[in-house]
Structure formats: structure tokens, C-alpha cells
Amino acid sequence: MPRHTNAALITRENAAAPSGAAVPCSFLAWYLGLIPHWIGTRSRLECRLLLRTHQWIVERVLDPEVDLADAAADLRQDGELTRILAALVPPDDRCRWNHFIQVVVANLRHALLAPVTRRNEAWLRWLFLIPYSIRPS
């Protein structure tokens, strides 16, 4: 897959909100406004983990072609997102980052359990804040 910035992934024409509507402009402005926070005060590895989680959200939750049940399968303890994030971590740092990855995946799994009626722009922002709000141990 070609490398994209998360902003470019979010602005894809086929990116859609969980309800199938286009991603709201207010969400895009919110996300772009937080880029200095996404990348500014974090280690390079933490930034990569955060942005890769955001990429997964765009590809597996926002894409209307992807069934949320398939996205939820990625969030099993040994699922695809865990493998994706673990692959970014150098072998010597795996113990330190394992807990961070487990908590991110568990919180995203919990978020996907929200009823469809609660999947609004606030819910969408919450998804992107999950990896940002968790600090490595």
C-alpha cells in the first residue's frame, strides 16, 4: 500500500462517516488542527503507533465498503491491529509497548460496541483520541 498521510486518507472521496454520510468538515478541521498534538510531544515510535492506529480507523471503520464486524475481528487480542502495531515496535522495546497496544486495541473494541445511534461525530472523534489518550507504561 502506498504511504499516505492520515489527513490524505481522511479526505479520500470515498471516506465516509459511520452512518454512510461524508466525513463532516468540522471533523476534518478538528483532526487537522490537532496534528501538532498528534506528532509534537511524542516519541517517534509513539507517534508512529498513534498515526498507524488512525490509518487503521480510516481504512477499517470509515470505509463504507468494510463491514464493522470485520473491523471488530481486527480488534481481537491477537488480531490484525495488534499485529500491525506490534510490527512497528523494535524487538527490544516490545515489553514496554505491549501494554499500550493492548489498551488501544481494547478501547477501540469497546468503542465499536456503541449502538449505531450513538455513532456520530463525537464518537468518531473519540476513536481518534483513544491512542492519543493512552500513555506507554
In short:
64% of the residues lie in helices and 0% in strands. By secondary structure, the chain is an all-alpha fold. The longest helix has 19 residues, at 44-62.
Indicate the topology:
Elements: H1 6-10, H2 25-33, H3 35-40, H4 44-62, H5 68-74, H6 80-88, H7 94-112, H8 121-133
Helix pairs in contact: 4-6, 4-8, 6-7, 7-8
Describe the structure.
With 137 residues, the protein is mainly alpha-helical. It has a domain of 94 residues. The protein has 8 helices and no strands. The longest helix is centred in the middle third of the chain and has 19 residues.
Average pLDDT reading: 83
| Spatial gap, N to C terminus | 31 Å
Helix content: 55-70%
Instruction: Name the structural class.
Output: mainly alpha
Q: Given the structure, what is the number of helices?
A: 8
Global shape: globular
Question: Could you give a short account of the major beta sheet?
Answer: none
Order of helices and strands: HHHHHHHH
Number of strands: 0
Task: Determine the strand fraction and express it as a percent band.
Answer: under 5%
Overall radius of gyration: 14 Å
Residue ranges: pLDDT <50 for 5 or more in a row?
1-21
